[in-house]
Amino acid sequence: MRQENSTKSLLLATFHQAVSAASAQATLAAHLPPLPPRGRTLVLGAGKAAAAMAAVTAETLNGALHGKVVTRYGHDCEIPGDKISLACAAHPVPDRQSTIIARKMLALAQKCKPEDRLLFLASGGGSSLLCLPAPGLSLLQKQDIIRHLLHSGADIAQINCVRKHLSAIKGGRLAAACGTRDIHTFIISDVPGDDPAAIASGPTIADPTSLADARAVIMRYGTPHEDVVMAALNNDTNETPKPGTLVEHHTIIATAKDALGAAAKWAKAKGWQVHNLGDRIEGEARDVGTYHARIALDLKARGGRWLLISGGETTVTVRHQNGGGGPNLEYLAGLALALNGEGGITALSCDTDGIDGSEDNAGAFITPTTLSRAKTLGLDLKAHLDKNRTYAFFKALDDLVITGPTLTNVNDFRIIAIES
Fold first, then answer.
1. Domain extents for the chain?
2. What is the CATH number of domain 25-254?
3. This model's pTM is above 0.90
4. CA 261 to CA 283: how far, in whole Å?
5. What is the sign of the dihedral through the CA atoms of 115, 71, 415 and 5?
6. Pairwise CA distance, residues 16 & 71, whole Å
7. What are 289-337's pLDDT values in tens digits?
8. Which fold has domain 2-20+257-419?
9. Which of 399, 290, 287 has its CA nearest to residue 340?
10. How buried is residue 59: exposed, middle or buried, by Cβ count under 10 Å (0-12/13-18/19+)?
């Protein structure tokens, strides 16, 4: 047990290294424009890192500055001065506050003069936090649609494609409505591949997806309010601005690749060999866990001390609405079942924003004793996984990782320690 605890401490410390490397405090200031514009600077932003990004912006920039950012409830922090105001809204399903803030931001952008500058601070979660339904669509309908897609197994790119085409602010529409063409977007990426148009559904970034793409997602996964949705997706006025139609400048300041690189460097300095699977892992979470178990067993057969790390975003198909547990816990459940108590293999999987799904945990651990301890408590991991009740399982074992909001978001971080 002492060895298990030591390995768990190592994995948690490595996770913190990854999160720190992807924080606004570590990355944003160096990228902000050094000279103020002729007019004023408007700062807008949306996402789980928006408050932290706004704080760095307020500390770094001089000149006439004003603005508003929105983050998820509980992901706020103090922003120096009184020039940039902070609001909070709901995630992953928008609420009324999401629409109120979106209208205010759109109005602020429209009031910009040609000599002004807009700085937009984008990070994961912004798609929900900044919600302005397309004409003919109500907030309640939009909530039902997003809730359905989140539970359907659709990946984030597919969900955001639909979001953009059912929105009056996403997919470049904020930039198109802005009174200045001096627009700079700074991005902390939470999507595999780091497509700037996908992060927070790109309010200031031209959209390469189309109404036809959005219709294809709905045809595959279905939707409530189908008549209203299809009417909107067949309306050409809901097409988003396309690449080449907007004057835009964007900088991606932090990615999952950066977080993995920092973790690998730190681990190697501690004497571990690192096998990096990359930052673009996608798929059904439990299936990815099964696949990673095979890789871990292969590394164990080689001998030595290995850390197997990966990033990206897995998905969960929700089969039981009253379950509990996000993609990181379902990944770990698939991993634990496939390893079947194999000695010398311990793992952590956490969301870098500090919240896995909708519960209070960032993720959890598994160890060689996970299944045996569960058996002692009368817990069946496979049954919990089948009912999407992984949160209850890991909580009963006292193996949840609870960090609180980290104020950044480069998606999931998975690490498996393998000791022969």
1. 2-20+257-419, 25-254
2. 3.40.50.10180
3. yes
4. 22
5. positive
6. 21
7. 999 999 999 999 999 999 999 999 999 988 877 678 899 999 999 999 9
8. glycerate kinase, domain 1 (3.40.1480)
9. 290
10. middle
